[in-house]
Amino acid sequence: MGDRLQAIVDLDATGAQARRLADRVVEWLAAEGIVLAERTPCVPGRPLGHPPGPHWHRAVTDDWDWPPSDGLAVHTVRTGFTSGADMPGAALCPRCGAATALDDAAWRRFGDAMRTWHDEGTASAGCPACGTAVPLPDWTWDEAPLAFGSLGLEFWNWPELTPEFRARTAEVLDGHRTAYVWGKL
């Protein structure tokens, strides 16, 4: 059966901003009753997270058949978020829109950029179509999403989050660009 995850990743937050912004989002979510402020052992693979609150349904689509069975994990360090076991087939350049097939050579290039980003906090990968060096968090990915950020909100085993909820979360994050990553482990 597996565990479902959905993450809202702040693509603009710096490491210095991540904790402050995370606290603001959790305060807002707790005030709305979407999650509880206290932390409990309620997320897979993490010691503590925020359990669903009494109004968790305000964050999800209307066509759910089940309530959340786990909680919210908040990440405030540089993290690469993935959809689980699946990996994308192409990287999409945000400058020219060209798709770069992720063959072995492209994966090596993007893998090098991912390691540099993780270690140093910034990295770019060049687009073979337009020649632009694009910051790693700006790339988008087909089919199986990836996102890179210093702040991520991972909802475990929740019904689908609504686009409106994701947009409100971005507003609380000072209007930062966000990515939505979903998957199953």
SSE topology sketch:
Elements: E1 4-10, H1 15-32, E2 72-75, E3 79-82, E4 90-92, E5 99-101, H2 104-120, E6 124-126, E7 133-135, E8 140-141, E9 146-149, E10 151-156, H3 163-172, E11 178-184
Antiparallel strand pairs: 1-10, 1-11, 2-10, 3-9, 4-5, 4-8, 6-7
What characteristics describe this protein?
single chain; 185 residues; alpha+beta; 2 domains; 4-stranded antiparallel β-sheet; 3-stranded antiparallel β-sheet; 3 helices; 24% helix; 25% strand; globular
Q: What can be said about this structure in brief?
A:
The chain has helices at 15-32, 104-120, 163-172, and strands at residues 4-10, 72-75, 79-82, 90-92, 99-101, 124-126, 133-135, 140-141, 146-149, 151-156, 178-184. It has 185 residues and is an alpha+beta fold. The chain has a 4-stranded antiparallel sheet. Strands 5-4-8 form a 3-stranded antiparallel sheet, with no helix packed on it.
Walk me through this protein's architecture.
The longest helix has 18 residues. The radius of gyration is 17 Å and the shape is globular. The N and C termini lie close together (9 Å). It has a four-stranded antiparallel β-sheet. It has a three-stranded antiparallel β-sheet with strand order 5-4-8, with no helix packed on it. The protein has a two-stranded antiparallel sheet with strand order 3-9. It has two domains: 118 residues, no CATH class; 52 residues, no CATH class. Strand 4 and strand 5 form a beta hairpin. The protein is built from three helices and eleven strands; from the N terminus they run βαββββαβββββαβ. By secondary structure, it is an alpha+beta fold. One of its GO terms (cellular component) is ribosome. This is Ribosomal protein S27AE. Keywords: Ribonucleoprotein, Ribosomal protein.
